[in-house]
Amino acid sequence: MNMDELARRVKDSSIRLAAATTEVKNKALEFIAASLTERKNEIIKANRLDLDRSEKENLSAPLLKRLNFDEEKIADVVDGIHDLIKLEDPVGKTLLSTELDEGLELYKVTSPIGVIGVIFESRPDALVQIATLCLKSGNGVLLKGGSEAMETNRILAEVILEATMKAGIPEYWAALLETRSDVNDMLKMDGYIDLIIPRGSNEFVRYIMDNSRIPVLGHADGICHCYVDEKADLNMAAKIVVDSKTQYVAVCNAAETLLVHESIAPAFLPALKNLLDSKKVEIVGCPRTQSIIPVAPATPEDWKTEYLDYKLSIKIVSTLEEAIEHINTYGSGHTDSIITGDRERALRFMDYVDSGNVFWNCSTRFSDGFRYGFGAEVGISTGKIHSRGPVGLDGLVIYKYKLIGNGHIVEDYANRTKTFKHRKLNRDFA
């Protein structure tokens, strides 16, 4: 089947899926969870083939870690599906109800976006999370994973599609794409695809944005910051910074730059360096940082680099305002955290830092759809239209206006025979 025909079938199926009941969608999710558990040995065997091939091709250690899909990760995605089942259906929620005039009622009601094209990295768990979120939100989906996960993605797509067909979901609500040319074809299909969500390198995301008329939701970089304020508890700060940097380095919400107030830098940085040394983190710093701890010099390029590795850049700042300015200049609008005991300073940071996620006294690693209770996520958006931050169920619906009348015509209002009342109703569309 060619790409055009496949996309057309997904589009047709998405229209029927949009009207599926919550009960049918949840039953399909239950079948997926059960099938993943039943077929876990097949899935792990397929994943071993991908890992062996990727090791021979010298795939980097962080990417190999993402690629690994063992029994523990399968259990995690199954738990995530059960959590997703418990979440409220985002489709069909009344956002507004207004009586325009007697017998003329307007409703604003959530609805699926339609067909979503998702291009994601080497993590097989991303395929399961994305597909199940799209299913619960009533969207068709075209899935393009990395070639390094080809065998794992194939069996996961097979498991998901077989399980959902058993539950009565349309056959082509989802489809797996495998070749690079499929991506280029996808970018031209604005007649079938309503939204593209790319997950990959900065260059790749920019390429997608520059080569498609389809709206793109996502983020190019994850340049996240921790700022240790002059009023910080230093033990707390060290714990948060180490977690933000090292809990999992190959992810977009790991901290890449640390900002430290000059008044506490002499006491804080030596102790922090010992902790980071134990984790084998390479540190680069500004001249003021170098005067306190022995580290390599940071270049201007370091402030705008997403390392995705055991490397951290450190800059000493004189004021809270300088920290905010640095973040807004070099950050990517992803996630930034302040560590301080001063509420007023924390709130100022959270108001003025222009990012989708702004934190106080906690690790940047909390910026995640699963941790937010969204039932995982399809990605992180640093944009400001439609959805921002971790994109879960609510980020995968839009809305439509539904107007119910009884023979009403505009001419009656144009000649002032009738007048609008615009009275707010507290009523759901039914």
Topology:
Layout (H helix, E strand, L loop, with lengths): L2 H15 L4 H17 L1 H17 L4 H7 L3 H16 L7 E8 L2 E9 L2 E5 L4 H13 L3 E5 L5 H17 L7 E4 L2 H8 L7 E4 L3 H9 L13 E5 L5 H13 L8 E7 L3 H14 L3 E4 L1 H4 L5 E2 L13 E7 L2 H11 L4 E5 L3 H10 L4 E4 L18 E3 L7 E3 L5 E8 L6 H4 L8 E2 L6
Strand content: 15-25%
* Major beta sheet, strand line-up: 10-9-11-8-7-12-13
Q: Which spans of ≥5 residues are poorly predicted at pLDDT below 50? A: none
Q: What Rg do the Cα atoms give? A: 25 Å
- CATH homologous superfamily placement of the largest domain: Aldehyde Dehydrogenase, Chain A, domain 1
Which structural class fits the helix and strand makeup?
Answer: alpha/beta
Number of strands: 17
Shape: globular
The tally of helices reads 15
CATH topology of the largest domain: Aldehyde Dehydrogenase, Chain A, domain 1
Nearest-integer average pLDDT: 94
Helix content: 40-55%
| Main beta-sheet strand count, sense and barrel state | 7 strands, parallel
Distance between the termini: 40 Å
CATH class of the largest domain: Alpha Beta
Q: Provide the domain count.
A: 2
CATH architectural name of the largest domain:
3-Layer(aba) Sandwich
